[in-house]
Amino acid sequence: MEEKKKPFKLAHSNKYFTIGVYTIVVVFICAVLVKVILNMSASIGFLKNFLKGMAPFLVGILIAYCINPLYNWLYHKALKKLLNGHLAKVRKYLAIIISYVIFVGVILSLLVYIIPNILNSFTDLIGNAQLFYNNIVDWLDDLAKKYPELDLEYIEKSLSGTFPSAVELASSGIAKIGSKIYGTSMSLLSWIYNVLMGFVVSFYLILDKSSMIRALKRAIYAVFPEDTAKKIVANLRESNEIFSNFIIGKFFDSLIIGIICFVFCKILHIEYALIVSLVVGITNMIPYIGPFIGGFIGGLLLLIISPTNCIEFLILVFVLQQFDGFILGPKILGDKTGLRPFWILFAVTLGGWAAGAIGMFLGVPIVAVVANFADKYVTAKLKEKELDIPKVYATEKMDPDYLNTKKNTENKQ
Questions:
Q1: End-to-end Cα spacing for the chain
Q2: Neighbouring C-beta atoms of residue 369, cutoff 10 Å
Q3: CA angle at 91 for the pair 90 and 96, rounded to the nearest 5°
Q4: Are the beta carbons of 346 and 367 closer than 8 angstroms?
Q5: Cβ contacts of residue 132 below 8 Å, gap of 6+?
Q6: Whole-angstrom distance, CA of residue 182 vs CA of residue 188
């Protein structure tokens, strides 16, 4: 009798299935990259629109990072003894409410003090425009008398022609300001909406963070092998620490620098101390480039008012940045990012190009996270090849013995 032929069945292979999945993912990523590169302008426009649409969530994440340390302290320490056991849920909501009351209260208190002073300062600037112009002309005249070899006549003529034109332009702008009110109000409403929605998003992020983290872990362990899942969770935890430490540390660092700048401006009787200190504090949030931006803006404003104050302010900013760079910054931030100055400048430039001022600030922790992943990948590959190449600076000469394998190194020992 002839044997019955068994129907052909395709043998299942986890190995080939995994290779197939990786192939599909790589092809998809390459196709997306090619599409982005060939349509760069459209891709940039899409990215900016996407970031604009996600603004409430980005603001909410920033607010959550700022409030989370205060919430953790209240929930895990301050209220733990008072509300425990069955009252743990009450403690959670109470900690969130107290955190938001303190956070919003501090912001409103600062705004109540800062906004009227800023408005008064700008009113003085506009009202004293003619006086500032006269001061500049007098200063140039004195400079020309002291240093006759300097040809300042061209500057004075340019200034005398520019100032009336600027006044006339401002006057015509005021007449046409009604046409701009709609656009300005819509922009203001958009910012208000983003901030309010940011607070709502941050509230639910803090409220549901435990369940969200648990759900993410379950999904990671369900999709990936256990060892891979552990590595992914560890990397995500490190990334979160990099973001949290950088954002919170930079916020307090800039706040302290702004307060110190304000105090010393008052001691030195520098005009418009609040405005220039506010500029210094805000721009200090941007690593490396920020202090130069703040010093330039504040110095330019004070140069119009009083050249002496301008010099005093620039010296003060220089001293403050040395103090921040060598003493305060390392104490608060430490080496949270692990990036060298070149990569920080790269992150700030790339972030500013992609998302403006917020991108300049967030670009540093994002690049730090990518650098952390890249460093771990390189370290793992070197271990696979049994190479012991330590991290060295580019200015240091690498010992050729570092290129020996561990086996050769052990044999030498």
A1: 73
A2: 19
A3: 100
A4: yes
A5: 125, 304, 305
A6: 10
Specify the amino acid at residue 377.
Y
Question: Does residue 272 contact residue 301 with C-beta atoms inside 8 Å?
Answer: yes
Non-local (6+) Cβ contacts of 389 within 8 A are 382, 398, 402, 403
Q: Strand pairing partners for 387? A: 405
What share of residues in the chain are helix, strand, coil (percent, to 5)? 85, 0, 15
- Residue 193: other Cβ atoms inside 10 A: 12
Q: Is 387 helix (H, G, I), strand (E, B) or coil?
A: strand
Note the pTM of the prediction, 2 decimals.
Answer: 0.66
CA atoms within 13 A on the CB side of 345: 7
Nearest alpha-carbon partner for 100 in 221, 205, 216? 205
Look-up of token digits 């190009």: 353
Pick from 134, 369, 360, 350: nearest CA to 240:
369
Domain range summary for the chain, segments of one domain joined by + = 57-175+186-207
Report how far residue 176's alpha carbon sits from residue 172's, in angstroms, rounded to the nearest whole number: 6
**How far, in Å, CA of 212 to CA of 164, rounded?**
61
Tens of pLDDT, residue by residue over 19-38, are 777 788 788 888 878 877 78
For the segment 344-365, what is each residue's pLDDT rounded down to a tens digit? 788 878 877 776 767 777 788 8
